[in-house]
Each structure stands twice: as structure tokens, then as C-alpha cells.
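Notebook entry, structure prediction.
Reason for the run: the old model in the group folder had no record of what sequence produced it. Starting over properly, with the input documented here first.
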Amino acid sequence: MSFNLEDLEGPIMRILTAPGVDLSTISAKGVRQKLLEDTALGLTARGLKERRTEVDAMISSIYEDISRQAQTDESKRKREEEADAGTEQEEATEEQDDQDDAAEEQDAEASEEDDVKPPTKKKKGAAKSVEEADAELARKLASQLNSRSRRGTSNAVVDSGAEDEDEDEEKPKKKRGGGARGGFAKEYILSESLSVVVGVDKLSRPQVVKRLWEYIRGHELQNPSNRREIMCDDNMRAVFGTEKVDMFRMNKVLGRHLHAQ
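New structure, fully documented this time:
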């Protein structure tokens, strides 16, 4: 039973964007199986098999579009998170600065109070006793030590903040590694002859199929009287070893030119 390839675009999109779908592991075979399970499409296993190469190329193209959009959304989310984190850090820094300023003002007021205290008046006609002199000296030393202690604490808070900022700057940011590359994302090293046709030496299988069909259409290699038959030019002959190849056999032969990394 024949079907219109363009009618599968919407269902394929829904399958690849369905909740819980892992784009790093889903395969073209899994997508085709779900298409068969959708009775509303009226597909048959035989009809889908006859046009498997074209269906796989469409699945690959839609998958790449969805992947690019997902990467764009992820980058946008990261930028928003970084912006929020920067705002929180600025607020925390401002709050710390306010606390430091308040501590310094308290220290300054305490020092002024110590400076403006009037000296102890000497009793006329009587010399200060040794006990009174020691008590006065002890009071002054205690006041000075308390003032220095408060200033030292304030400076420690500021220095600590600076050290924390330096440490934050020196700490390398952890890179988020991507998930395991499998399914569509798995890349293969291509044979020399296949690399000449597709123009690169490393691709995933869906990308190989897509570029191969771009080459076929660009060089008008499909047999006009039998669209499933490919007429090989010199480059294609080096890959498939024949003058013409059926599209189904072509897909099988490709496996010989894909080598795991």
C-alpha cells in the first residue's frame, strides 16, 4: 500500500517530541515501529519497508531540527540561571558591604567616645596615689584593646569576603558533560570511498543516508523508469562495486563502510 511521505512528517515530529523520549538513544527503527502502531496512518510493514530509506532520511532530518532546538533552549536556560545567580551574588555582596559599613561606624563612635572623655581632675593639694594611677592606666589600655579588637574583626570580615571571591575566581567551572552518545548521535568513521561521496570522514548513520540521497538527487542518479534503482557514477561505483544498485541493497551495503570509533 502506497502512502504520501509528507503525511508522516507530523507523526514523526510527535513521536520524537513525546514526553519521556530520550533523543540520545531513540533509533529510526523505534520510530518506524511507532508509526506502524498508529492505526490512523494506515501503514503496513511491507509498504514502510519498501520506502524505508526515504522514511529514515525524513526521520533523520526532523531529529536534527529537534536536537538543534533543544540545544538552543538549553543554552537559553543556562544563561537565565547564570543571570539569576549573578543577581543573587550582587545582593549578597551589597548586604555584606552594609554590615561592614555599620561595624566601622560603631568602631568610629566608640573611639570618639574614648577621645572626648575628660581627664580625671587632680585634687588640689594632694598627690595621686599609686593605686589610682594604675587603675587609670588599666582603664585606658582596656578601652584601646577593645577598640582594636572590634576593628580587627571588621577587617577580617572584609578580607574573608575578598579571599572567598578570589577562590571562586580560581576554581575552574565544571563542564557539563553530555549524556552517552548513542542511537542517532553515534558517529562512525567512514571508508575513503564513502567519504568522497558525502564530503566528510565522520558522520552518524542517519546523516550518511541523508547526504547520500542529496548526492543522488544532485547528480540525477535515480533511474527515471524505476525510481528505486540508483545508477552509479564513478564515485558511487567505488562504494557499491556495481553499475546500478537497488535502494534497499544500498542501505545494507552502507554498513560495510561505517566503522566504529
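Summary: Residues 153-171 have pLDDT under 50 and may be disordered.
The old model has been moved to the deprecated folder.
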